DNA sequence: TAGTTTTGGGACTTAATTGTCTTAAATATG
DNA sequence: CATATTTAAGACAATTAAGTCCCAAAACTA
């Protein structure tokens, strides 16, 4: 049950790492993040560029440069990140891949899937990077294998 | 939110079609199914071969040949099909892709995801092809765009 | 200003998924 | 037996996802 692409997975883990390091001021370098999380530096850089272009991150070049969240981590929610990295229709897809699946023309699993998607969306809408970052800071949850 | 591969999507739709045509005796040809559901014949054939090899379908060659469910449709559940086409670990994957994510070493979204997966698994465990086939037969649900 | 550090952006490679095609094997029919 | 029908099996091509690399641009340091 693979729900998220690698780009999204890496992006999310990196953002939660950023949130978990909230006591540090200034920018965190992509090099540090990719090393700590054991993610390919170049791949993460590309994903971060997308997040920067969409206002989730701000970046700064040069020595002591890096990336930082544009907003306090308690104002950034999983939905925001998923929308940027997976597309705005992320929570609006038919389980059986039928285009335009809906109440007028539902697939046989539409009723169930609608509920499952809503639960998922609700959780993503209400889970902030701050919340996840704290879990990592408290050291009861991990971001890396 | 793409959860199932194309192979699984096509396989499921085709199996539900088979279940929905339960009044017809004998085998249904892959040609008919692929045409009715607007699925590539060759691609569906490959998926059906996998399902045949794993005991979901039985096949018969030659004129009036085709495929048929090995068991009554009310004894075949979504979980059975998903296990064959997606792998037995389908309901056992970390949302953030961390190997070995579990109670001892959970990722930050583990608690939520565990619940979401269980709900999904419960639905798949208890939804039979017969149930879905009936919905299609009753003509209130569709299998094709 | 020269050199170093860091992100930006694009080209490129590799791997996985999806889709197509060809031929073989099994079965039925005349 | 010859021919038509249908699945089996695997090679092959196209597309998408994932990962790598290079060099330019921005910013700091000395």
Descriptive labels:
elongated; 6 helices; homodimer; DNA-binding; Arc Repressor Mutant, subunit A; 145 residues; mainly alpha
Can you offer a commentary on this structure?
The structure is a homodimer of 145-residue chains. With 145 residues, chain A is mainly α. Chain A has a single domain (6-137), classed as Arc Repressor Mutant, subunit A. Chain A is built from six helices and two strands, in the order αααββααα. The first copy, chain A, has a two-stranded antiparallel ribbon with strand order 1-2. In chain A, strand 1 and strand 2 (66-69) form a beta hairpin. In chain A, helix 1 (6-20) crosses helix 6. The model of chain A has no long low-confidence stretch (mean pLDDT 97). Chain A binds chain B through residues 1-4, 6, 9, 12-13, 16, 86, 90-91, 93, 95-100, 105-110, 112, 116-117, 119-120, 123, 127, 132-133, 135-136, 140-145, and chain B through 1-4, 6, 9, 12-13, 16, 86, 90-91, 93, 95-100, 105-110, 112, 116-117, 119-120, 123, 127, 132-133, 135-136, 140-145. Chain A binds a DNA duplex (30 and 30 nucleotides) through residues 5-7, 27, 29-31, 40-43, 45-46, 48-49, 52, 59-67.
């Amino acid at each position: 049950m693979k729900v998220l692409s690698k780009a999204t997975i890496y992006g999310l883990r990196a953002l939660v790492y950023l949130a978990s390091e909230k006591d540090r001021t200034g920018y965190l370098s992509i090099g540090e993040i990719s090393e700590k999380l054991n993610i390919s530096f170049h791949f993460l850089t590309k994903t971060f560029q997308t997040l920067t272009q969409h206002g989730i991150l701000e970046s700064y070049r040069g020595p002591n440069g890096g990336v930082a969240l544009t907003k306090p981590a308690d104002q950034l929610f999983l939905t925001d990140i998923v929308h940027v990295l997976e597309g705005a229709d992320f929570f609006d897809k038919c389980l059986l891949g039928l285009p335009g699946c809906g109440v007028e023309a539902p697939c046989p699993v539409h009723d169930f899937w609608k509920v499952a998607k809503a639960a998922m969306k609700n959780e993503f809408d209400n889970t902030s990077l701050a919340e996840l970052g704290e879990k990592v800071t408290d050291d009861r949850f991990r971001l890396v294998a």
